[in-house]
Amino acid sequence: MVATPIGHLADITLRAVEILRAADLVAAEDTRRSRALLTHIDAFPKPLVSVNEHNERRRIRELTAKLSDGASVALISDAGTPLISDPGHLLVKAAFEAGCKVVPIPGPSALVTALSVCPLASERFVFEGFLPSRGEARRKRLRELDSMTLSIVLYEAPHRLLAALDDLLAVMGDRRVMVGRELTKMHEQVRSGRLSEMREQFAGEAPRGELVLIVERRERTTEQSISDSAERLLQVLLAELSPSQSARLVAAATGESRGAIYKRALASKPS
Ligand code: SAM
Q: 212 and 183 in contact (C-beta within 8 Å)?
């Protein structure tokens, strides 16, 4: 599993170059894109096979058979680390189950790259990747993320940035956020401010390029937090009952503060 650059080609590691040159076969998300990278590092020509979200399941038998025959197969995604919001998990699982050796070749990932320049408190974080795109699934996930006292790392497409800032603001309040754009590329930009400030800035300029958002963790002092299990129960009850009824039942079931649960219920009850 070979990590490749997320922009700047010089970010490829020496070991990745060595492995890609030596591999019998390279499995790549997009073979055309990967040909350019392999050519850049003198690892081409080389047998290439595509592995993407549409065909990964179908490729498993073919690739695990090659591994079992002793071939070395390097898997790369379009950018960054395989499996991080990218294909590869089914193949890794199948390779493990077939008794094949799976070796990590670490390198760039947009997640870690963004965290490494984040001015917000983000030593403890949850990686969400792409949020569900819309509807109740999205609102539910945002409420779950809001209840955690961890910073939240999100991937987002540029045409959805404003909607994401709006939704984060509506559910989590005006927290601080960092927006990392086009990291390691020519138009790299890192901005940070309140969600409302970022909303205002980006509204005036039709954001382009690839984006990572880091939303600062909820401030523990401003609100008494409730446990994850209380939160889950609360969300189930809120679908049927009022905030006060739900809070009373969750407090009775978990022994946690009714006041804190009620506050949480008011904040998360869909309007
Ligand atoms: N596997 C990759 C990794 O390790 O980060 C992520 C792949 S995911 C399909 C692509 C998303 O990652 C983009 O939509 C964007 O949110 C983020 N991303 C990738 N490259 C980036 C960059 N150079 N700057 C900012 N975000 C980036």
A: yes
